[in-house]
Amino acid sequence: MTRLIAHLAPALALLFASPIRAADGIPPSVSPTSQARAIALRERAVADNAAWSLVESLTTEVGARLAGTEADARAVAWARARFEALGYDRVWLEPVKFPIWRRGHERAEVLPPFAQPLAITTLGGSVGTDRKGLEAEVVAFADLAALEAVPDASLDGRIAYIGYRMTRFRDGRGYGPAVAARSRGASVASAKGASALLIRSIGTDSHRFPHTGMMSYADGVRPIPAAALANPDADQIERLLARGVPVRLRLDLDVGLDGEYTSHNVIGEITGRSQPDEVVVIGGHLDSWDLGTGAIDDGAGVAITMAAGALIGHLPAAERPARSVRVIAWANEEQGLIGARAYAAAHADTLSKHIIGAESDFGAGRIYALRAGVDEASWPLIEQIGHVLAPLGIETQRSGGGPGPDIVPLAERGVAWAQLAQDGTDYFDYHHTADDTLDKIEPAALDQQVAAYAAFAYLMADAEGRPQARPRPAPTR
User: Fold this and answer.
1) Which of 241, 254, 304, 344 has the greatest number of C-beta atoms within 10 Å?
2) Rounded distance between C-alpha atoms, residue 444 and residue 55, angstroms
């Protein structure tokens, strides 16, 4: 009780301050009443553990949720039941179809005279080896550009290895330069005559957990197996190669495509009091890779946004925001934003009613910045929301950032986006590995994020006027 009173004291003081906008330092374009309700939501959230309870339930009762598996179906049922139990006004499913990619066994080893096993994982979408496996010599490249620079067909059946090491940053900007090796490397290696591709894991850790992730083949290339080595095993390969003698590997990867599957986006909505057909979208993706239990990617995001929407839904009808708040647990983000693209296509005729979108999909670290893809005239509104978020340690930043992955298809169609930027300093230590488990999440950090999402969604849904998306730059000739 002492903790609850301490958390509520700032909100109570502001509720009775006169005027409210002066007390919280907010310009007056969002109503004082709306501000007060958002502040109360903010304080209520940091005294709660609702998101922790949700992500604990998802990771314990369902666990890993690889798209197209039996666990995918259980996750959909779990999300629907939780939305209903949390009191959402409307809960529904929207179908999403995609090819099934399955993972069977995967083994790799260095052959004599340096015989030893390797920690490896196949990249999503990859073909496997044949039943006999594949044996070949390794040839190393510092990065994808170095592989692209060698003549076509010059690798003559060897295994191409890309050793680029990802750099750690709080905002995750080291991911972009590194991930090209994963997404395009197999196509380039195939064109160069390789029999398979190995990459250093796209991760910032030194643990013996390889990082999976999606890849694809360019049209017209011969598909070859593609896999990632744990960072310590990549170091080992490089040390062996530095000895100047041939290094041969054996790969045995039982993976591949296996039919088609229908999953679902799971949607819960809190109905607005006066403009219910206009919606603010928040959410996270429900699927995960199969190596861990999908706690930080993206069970946390689903739990944060589900709990935030429920807080708004528990308000009395007269205190609801004007617009509806729609929380989406997206299907199959990991294999290409498939659920998000299906949603954008299905709602193409009503996207003008989508006010703004924001997704939590960067782990479970605390939010440190509010950014937005809006035009200049909309920034006063963003900054007013930022004032309410500031006591949570969140800074409003006019530059940088981008839409969450599942918001990209909406942003491409002109919907404004916001980013509640999470601290991802250690996110890529666990991303797409067997180490993505519940123990990596701090409950208090989830509470801070629920507070931010609840206040953000409420204020945006109750704002006078609406933000406009940032104009796209004209194409260069």
Assistant:
1) 304
2) 13
CA distances from 83 to 72, 89, 136, 296, 309 (A): 17, 9, 51, 20, 9
Token duo for residue 468 = 């406009």
Q: Is the pLDDT of residue 18 over 90?
A: no
Q: Tell me whether the CATH fold assigned to 2-89+271-462 matches the one assigned to 101-257.
A: no
Specify whether the CB–CB gap between 159 and 224 falls below 8 A.
no
**Residue 132: CB partners within 8 Å, gap ≥ 6?**
none
Q: Let me know if 319 is a catalytic residue.
A: no
pTM (2 d.p.): 0.91
Going from N- to C-terminal start, the domains of the chain cover 2-89+271-462, 101-257
Task: Check: CB of residue 428 under 8 Å from CB of residue 204.
Answer: yes
Q: How many CA atoms lie within 13 A of 236 on its CB side?
A: 18
Active-site residue, from 333, 334, 359, 442: 333
pLDDT digits (tens, 9 = 90+) for 65-120: 999 999 999 999 999 999 999 999 999 999 999 999 999 999 999 999 999 999 99
CATH 3.40.50.970 fits 101-257, yes or no: no
Where does the pLDDT of residue 473 fall: very low under 50, low under 70, confident under 90, or very high at 90 and above? low
- Counting residues of the chain whose pLDDT is more than 70, the rounded percentage is 93
Region 121-133 average pLDDT? 97
Q: Under CATH, domain 2-89+271-462 is a member of which superfamily?
A: Zn peptidases (3.40.630.10)
Among 160, 87, 27, which residue's Cα sits nearest to residue 327? 87
